[in-house]
């Protein structure tokens, strides 16, 4: 159980899995080695800032050809209230000529394949929220990325599924759902495919541009680019997240070796992580468009391309400490 304990966030609600030394089995039959489960119902922002699993990003992405306004990821736009993590894209700030935004990511950068789930909704104060993007994604580099995105400039029933650099599709959410509904968003990434789910309904499947490199999982709410929308938001938009569940394998050979030894020694049953099977879509899941990213004028890096400046980036050191703890 040592590897599971060290994956739990300090000060956050512990995982419900007591002993899963042989992995986590999903309702598609896939089994993954590790888990990070985060429930925001009984924690606060101070505890989250000290989490061993997550990092709050603070960096500015400046202007570029695809970004007329700077994107300013700031820790002040990340909060926890009423049992939810709040990632806010604020109204455009004319003084700094930037869009204040929010992003979190895993300290672990060794994630390679997995089933990744987050339950969230996007809340706009008024119609001035157009020009923002909610992202839930895996990132290794600009050509190794998997995204689920909700764009506030589009129909409130739409969702974008992407394998970078080019495999992208705009879909309607199943069962007439909207961005403001609290939905379970999920993507499964294996060596052969990526599959995208909304409330356990399979909504898209891709077999091209599948990432082959290890990286991190991230969630963000941001604006400033032509992809997000121009003009930028004139009022706040918030991504309200209630839970995040990540089940994944590691790219680190020594960690996989230790995991296998622990499993063989303890011989505990694999934990089933899904209480129900896949669901059906009672309405048509229509494809809005299927295009290449180059035609969208989209910035890279989770929608964050452009000149970087003023950054405070602690991921590498934190990830190293986390891996040391797991191996210990």
Summarize the structure.
Helices cover 11% and strands 41% of the residues. The protein is mainly β and 328 residues long. The strands form three sheets. Strands 4, 5, 6, 9, 11, 12, 13, 14, 18, 21 and 22 form an eleven-stranded mixed β-sheet that branches. Strands 3, 7, 8, 10, 15, 16, 17 and 19 form an eight-stranded antiparallel β-sheet that branches. Strands 2-1-20 form a three-stranded mixed β-sheet, with no helix packed on it.
Describe the structure.
It is a single chain. The chain is mainly beta. It has helices at residues 2-5, 45-49, 253-266, 315-327, and strands at residues 24-25, 31-32, 34-39, 54-56, 58-61, 70-73, 78-81, 84-89, 98-106, 111-124, 132-141, 144-151, 158-163, 167-172, 183-189, 194-198, 201-206, 216-223, 237-250, 271-272, 287-291, 308-312. It has one domain (2-327): Jelly Rolls, CATH 2.60.120. The protein is globular.
What structural keywords apply?
mainly beta; disordered C terminus; eleven-stranded mixed sheet; 328 residues; 4 helices; Jelly Rolls; single chain
Regarding quaternary structure, what we see is single chain
Q: Write the H/E string, N to C.
A: HEEEHEEEEEEEEEEEEEEEEHEEEH
The radius of gyration computed from the alpha-carbon positions, rounded to a whole number of angstroms, is 19 Å
Largest sheet: 11 strands, mixed
What integer is the average pLDDT? 84
Q: How many runs of DSSP E, i.e. beta strands?
A: 22
Backbone structural class: mainly beta
Number of helices: 4
